């Protein structure tokens, strides 16, 4: 397929802008992806033409908004190949999806002395919810380590699993190292031992084809804003067998079947886990984002980003004193690095002034920083709209910044 980069870029109005009087080069898609005009128009259309609260109203606009909301559920179901729309729960984002499982799954299945295995390579949002849930039950968190290449030491996994292990939490793609983890293998090992697996897919869904049935994953969490959709919405995929048994996460409207002061019965899936008025407009926008990703093709996007990854990695490696963190053979379009004698924060500020958006800091992954004995690093990350020319502009800016610091 001919990857029509100019056409793709034309969908993103923000990329046509100048910052500090220079054309914007956006290399921070791992933090949040920019929004295409298709999404922006959908947000406007819903607000202008048929806004109403869903599942409640007996009027034209509420009905139309409800149909759209449920159509997005079907789109997500197809996008990740879930067996049933009941298994697609809308949340605020990856963080809320993981908190939901940590709270409800642990309430049902985790007791004192039980264990949850969490990889060392996780974003805080796939560590802290487990710690909170484990603390409440006197359960234990067990660390699955990774090595300096940026690979999980999965040969150690069978030895870490005990009769007390209830769940393994791991990301699909690391937001720092870019490593694409062998989650199918992890899931197979876990299931042989009757252990459930939650995969944090925040950094994967916009770059890799996800097939939850093929993976046989128990829970898969991701955020719309990293898949070119609006912020404030996300998805929890969960196998029906777990979701049926798990208690509700939050109480409120929509998640009930009947309520009286004598007691409440809960709605069927997926509504049991969708208390309150959801983010209706953002969800509709997410539908438009999925349409665009499907139109371009996730494999084509992934291939394009991989070319950028190889191009940028080679250029960065030529810089004296520059260290790249994570050199796994299977990597997504994320590169974290530091340069000897230079603080990444200073680098980020100077590069920003040249019109280039990169990320610096601890990337919400303190254990990762501790592993590499660093406090921060710089990160560039790619989306469907980035180009080799932008990498050249970045490299020029980086070299200038190095000279200045
Ligand atoms: N996990 C990973 C790997 C991430 O990169 C992020 C976002 N940086 C999250 C979880 C959290 O996502 P959100 O803030 O959208 O809930």
UniProtKB/TrEMBL annotation:
An example GO BP is: cysteine metabolic process
Give the Aminotransferase class V domain ranges: 25-394
Give the InterPro entries listed for this entry: Aminotrans_V_dom, Aminotrans_V_PyrdxlP_BS, Cys_dSase_SufS, Cysteine_dSase, PyrdxlP-dep_Trfase, PyrdxlP-dep_Trfase_major, PyrdxlP-dep_Trfase_small
Keywords associated with the record: Pyridoxal phosphate, Transferase
Classify the source by domain of life: Bacteria
Does the record bear Transferase in its keywords?
A: yes
Q: What is its EC number?
A: 2.8.1.7
SUPFAM superfamilies listed in its UniProt record: PLP-dependent transferases
> One Pfam family from the UniProt entry?
Aminotran_5
**What are the required cofactors?**
pyridoxal 5'-phosphate
Q: Name one GO molecular function term.
A: pyridoxal phosphate binding
Task: Give the catalysed reaction(s), semicolon-separated.
Answer: (sulfur carrier)-H + L-cysteine = (sulfur carrier)-SH + L-alanine
As for family, the record states:
Belongs to the class-V pyridoxal-phosphate-dependent aminotransferase family. Csd subfamily.
Q: What does this protein do?
A: Catalyzes the removal of elemental sulfur and selenium atoms from L-cysteine, L-cystine, L-selenocysteine, and L-selenocystine to produce L-alanine.
Name of the protein described by the UniProt record: Cysteine desulfurase
Show the taxonomic lineage: Bacteria, Pseudomonadati, Bacteroidota, Bacteroidia, Marinilabiliales
